Amino acid sequence: MSRPRVDVQPRLTGPDDAATPRRWVPRLRASNPGRPGKVASMTEGVVLIRRDAFDAVGGWEEQLFLYHEGVDLAWRLYEAGWSGWYAASIRMHHPLTEPARHALYHRLAARNRIWIAHRNLPALLLPLYLSAWTTITLARAVRRGGLSQTLRGMREGWTSRHTQRRRPMSWRTVHRLTAAGRPPII
């Protein structure tokens, strides 16, 4: 039995109240940022979450610090039976920033991607998820820069993954995430 929606993800827009970069839309098929729908991830900068649900799943994972903590929290909320909603009609303004990334981003994003996989995914999905994200991440790093820091983060994530408490999600949660448009393999 599924619990009600527990988090609402507002639409982030630039100061002009119109521009929403694809990277700010927390669902697949992001070409129309004005379309609401189920989400299985969240933007860490602005999200509304019921406090009892947030506390029940342990809140933000402080070891992640930056990058992918919204995916980690969303997966744990889904595992607990809740779901989220992208409320495109609720708008929050954010400065439009240059998407060029810095060294810290490349390292921590790569490390944290491995950590959240190790923490949350069933063993059978780990190679699929990590293969998909390694391919995507390396292709982006080669095209846009940051390859050495990305490789450093991947090495750091892999060698320290056992510092993360493993709580693999159920196959029911895998199914729910997939039905929400966010299969936990990409």
Give a quick summary of the entry.
The chain has 6 helices and 4 strands. The chain is α+β, with helices and mostly antiparallel strands and 186 residues long. Helix 2 (69-79) runs parallel beside helix 3 (103-120), helix 3 (103-120) runs parallel beside helix 5 and helix 4 (126-144) packs antiparallel against helix 5 (147-160).
Task: Write a structural description.
The protein is of the alpha+beta class and 186 residues long. The protein has one domain. It contains 6 helices and 4 strands, in the order E-E-E-H-H-E-H-H-H-H. Strands 2-4-1-3 form a 4-stranded mixed sheet. Helix 3 runs antiparallel to helix 4, helix 3 packs parallel to helix 5 and helix 4 packs antiparallel against helix 5.
Give the number of DSSP strands. Answer: 4
Overall body shape: globular
Amino- and carboxy-terminal Cα gap? 26 Å
Separate helix tally: 6
Query: Which structural class do you get from the secondary structure elements?
Result: alpha+beta
Strand order of the largest sheet: 2-4-1-3
Q: What number of domains?
A: 1
Give the H and E element order: EEEHHEHHHH
Report the sheet with the most strands, covering strand number, pairing sense and barrel closure: 4 strands, mixed
User: Strand-residue fraction?
Assistant: 5-15%
The helix content, as a percent range, equals 40-55%
Q: What's the Cα radius of gyration?
A: 16 Å
Enumerate the spans where pLDDT stays under 50 for 5 or more consecutive residues: none
Average pLDDT for all residues: 87
